[in-house]
Amino acid sequence: MKTILTGVRANEEPTIGNFLGAYMPMINLAHKHATDCNINMFVPDLHSFTTPIDHSKLYAQVIKGIKYYMAAGLDTDNPNVHIYRQSHVPAHSELAWILDCFTPFGEASRMTQFKEKSEEHHDAITVGLFNYPILMAADILLYDAEYIPLGEDQFQHLELTRNIAMRMNNKFETELFTIPAPEKEQVAFMGLDKGLRIRSLTEPTKKMSKSSNNEKSKISLNDDPAEAKKKIMSATTDSEGVIHFDMQKQPGVSNLLMIEALINNKPLEEVIAQFDGQTRYGDLKKQVAESVSNFLTSFQAKVASISDEDVENVLEKGEAYANEVANKKLYEIQKQVGVRK
Ligand code: AQP
Q1: Is 3 helix (H, G, I), strand (E, B) or coil?
Q2: Is the dihedral of CA 175, 178, 180, 181 positive or negative?
Q3: How confident is the model at residue 122 (pLDDT cuts 50, 70, 90)?
Q4: What's the 312 CA to ligand 1 centre distance in angstroms?
Q5: Taking CB atoms and a 6 Å cutoff, what residues make up the pocket around ligand 1?
Q6: In degrees, to the nearest 5, what angle opens at C-alpha 92 toward C-alphas 90 and 97?
Q7: pTM for the complete prediction?
């Protein structure tokens, strides 16, 4: 059975960018492939402090992250659905070390996310931040995952994962790792024509990021719905005076059109047809504000109905599965690199 796998870091409160770019594609695939694929949705909690965080809040944020997966519609009664924490499957960090030794420094240095994040956090650039894509490769390769629903920003890391896996398969002349599908195939598997990128509300040429210090730039999943409406109403647009979907020239309005389509599960063309050529940006903002506020109200009610005990039960099952699969794979790899007979 093929494996579909994804995760969202628990460093900060996730945004609707994470929700629309990573949660929704995964949930849609989980429904579509409920009987013919393993669906692994994990919390990369060890990835959560590659940049500084408040560690006293991390544990609670991880548990909340799992409630979010469940509230988004992941069917935890399906035996093919596996929810787990990265830190509770030690094989992830063990494999990351091995993969480190098969990753040329020059190749890892080309990761644009590292460059961007080190500019943002120039006072705290850690080796962990540099190594993050290699731990991500371990997260994927341990489970022979083929499909990884990701937002556009993560495709370079996926390519690195593929390169490491191919290099090791060649070196050891065996099919040690399943090679994850390339970007084009991943995107087609998600039913998209390209990776999703929800933009910042205040600087729409940039992506919406959960770690941004500017609260107005993002809609977090725990935002008060009335506050979220205000953020949409004050979103940066442009002075063109006419609404067109054009990410280059009009990234602000195009971003709002995209949010409106994705959050209501409507085709983008339908939303574009409704607003194209209109001159009143306020009408578009009002409709998006209403949609976002309705979404948050209903999502937050679902989250509140899930107890910590529900999460514990799901994790107990998911982590037993993950450890069994991951350890089996790790043993095979350890044999190949010569540390186990
Ligand atoms: N704005 C976005 N649009 C579409 N997809 C997005 N993702 C993140 N932002 C957007 C996707 O969410 C998944 C989880 O990301 P992550 O938290 O593991 O790492 P990230 O890419 O670093 O996410 P953020 O929100 O930008 O976090 P911070 O600010 O903490 O670095 C990935 O699939 C990602 O593509």
Answers
A1: strand
A2: positive
A3: confident
A4: 25
A5: 8-9, 11-12, 15, 17-18, 21-22, 150-151, 153-154, 196-198, 207-211
A6: 105
A7: 0.92
